[in-house]
Amino acid sequence: MRKDKGRPRRRPRWWAGAALLITLVWLFGAGPLGMFLGRLGEVQTNDPGAFLPVGAESTEVSEIAEEFDREEAVPAVVVYSGGGDIAEDDLAAIAGVGERVAGEPWAVGPVIGPFPGTEDPSVAQFTVAIDPGHDTGDAVAELRALLADDPVPGLQAQVTGPAGYAADLTAAFGGIDSTLLVVAVSAVLVILVAVYRSPLLPVLVVLASLLALGLSGALVYLAADTGLVSLNGQSQGILFILVVGACTDYALLLVARYREELTTRDRVPEAVLAAVRGVTGPVLASGGTVILGLLCLLAADLASTRSLGPVVAIGVAAALFSAMTFLPAVLALCGRAVFWPSAPRRPGDGAAAGGGPGEEGLDAVVARHRFWGRIAGTVSRRPRAYWIGTTVLLAAAAVFAPQFDAGGTGQAEVFRTQVEAVEAQEELTRGFGPVSGAAPALVVADADRLDEVVAAAEDLPEVEEAVAVTEPGPPGADAPPLVEDGRVLVEVTLSVPPESSEAVSAVGGLRDALRGVEGADTLVGGVTATDLDTLETAQRDFAVVVPLVLVVVFLVLIPLLRSLVAPLLLMAANVLSFAAALGVGTLVFEHLLGLPGADPVVPLFAFVFLVALGIDYSIFLMSRAREEALVHGHREGVLRALTVTGGVITSAGVVLAVTFAALAVIPLLFLFQLAFLVAFGVLVDALIVRTLLVPALSLDVGPRAWWPGRAGRPAAAAGTAPADRRG
User: Is the model's pLDDT at 6 over the cut of 50?
Assistant: First the structure.
């Protein structure tokens, strides 16, 4: 029988069926799950309890106050304002509105007021408590609708207070389901089209991200609905952004390796499998680093910080799964057509045939990547000057990091746009001065020491009055203090604005003073005490979580790079990058934009995201450097890695920076600051740390960077067969 030796042997077509099956499972399995993204609001918890520090004194007071029926009733302050003084007839009309408000099913107890303004008689207000059994946002929406339907002529009615702020905060997160996702996906799509100049490939990458988002939305919904995780608006916004950004990053790495393999392999299935094998290690290490780093947030005591970790970790796992299963399947089905109209050449069309990347000469690699080849050549000529220069530059920016103001902000400063609660609070302050009794400090004390506690509190210059909560009785009656389990609840009204730094200091002084009352066993809570505890807890969380994240990242890098020195170099570079981003943030926020400060958790969130995500680019670079060093030696291996991965890592960094920048569309100061820090830090990691600092430092350190591994040693680089890469 004659054999056609010149004709390539036919391979089984099983791969086409497998790729089609995987694609259909994703499209018809995960695709419909996208409906859960619109239902995440059903399982969100944006009430103040979702952001309280776990185990803090103010949280304990909040739990004890439940026994006094004071625990969760959220006060809503209705403010009336006009151009002239409010007359008696107007007050009577306002009182009539208050009576109708008190009859609503979500109102608790009688309406307090109305009261005319003590500073400006053109303002009046009354307060209604909202039943904890009703959704605060819905109740405030109904209250505002009632006020609009029952107006007092010549007066404007607005709602503020804790309930008003909570409702406006919930409304601020309302853009997550639509605006945020549209902005992020559109930005990614534009960047991908510019990078690949292909109409099909960007759509497939975005489709992979959307399928991952749908899967993560369903998993998070199930976990939140069953109580396994706690979801709030800020966690949902970060989830959307991180899934799209991470999945796109992993997809870019896979696509770049696939394109590279197509230049050396004739068969598409072989190129896809080779690409998957080539990126599995760094992608799994990258995803694992992010997932484990986020899970380190479980060690935090602040409830909102602790809840973020598992929610976003679920999203990254879904992104990783989609990028490494759905995308390879559709690439295999589409073949070279995904890169049309600039598909990579076949080996027979002039490309060097061979078994894959690493076997062609360095000159050929540089010829295919001219820009990054020139950068690699420039760095290789003076590596010490480049790593010292970039280190000095980053250190100069990092000098300002300790000045970053993370002392918290007032409720009115949380919003970047004008909202009704803020406008009403300004009118309330105009009418009644800067002090409002809607948010007093709450003191729990032993009933036998009530008089001493009240006296000690009122001795402080910042305290206006201290009054014990009394038993229900007829109006005007001298009711006795309400006692529960031998304890009383005392409301302490401060003479300073409740959201100011002076109030936070006053609560600290109040705690110190009351601890001096022997046998009183006092605990101080309330809104301002929660601000104080949040600040202290955030500082504690930063001190605990940061070292934990560093240890986890280090332990992930060791088996990936099979080295102890290289992981230390990468971590030092990324920590310096974070400090530089925080320093630049200080200059931008305080000196350029004049922002009032930052939420206490901003530095911690920025650190976790920048270290866990920023290390990705160093992982992509150094894992490829190790692969090449095992064949060509350390110096050439680093230069090849920098040349080959330069374009894809830069594209990935830009994509991730742009997706995080999309968080700025949500009009909240916290998310704006986090978006800037992470976006800027990611660009620093991708453009400076990975491009200049890490390669130059690796070249200067030499093969010792892989100690105690064998990569880069002459013995390891002696062979050129693919088997030599196992190392």
Answer: no
